Amino acid sequence: MSAWNTFLSAVSLLMMLLVRCCQLVCVEVPSDTEALHGTNMKLTCISCVRREEVNTDTLVAWTYVNNDQEISIYEFNGEPRGLKGPYQGRILWSGSKDLQDVSITIVNVTLNDSGLYRCTIKRYFNYKIHRPSVTDVKDVQLTVHEDALEDFTSYISEIMMYLLLVFLTLWLIIEMIYCYRKILKSEQAAQENAADYLAIPSGNKEKQSTVPVEE
Question: What would you measure as the largest C-alpha separation in the chain, in angstroms?
Answer without folding.
Answer: 148
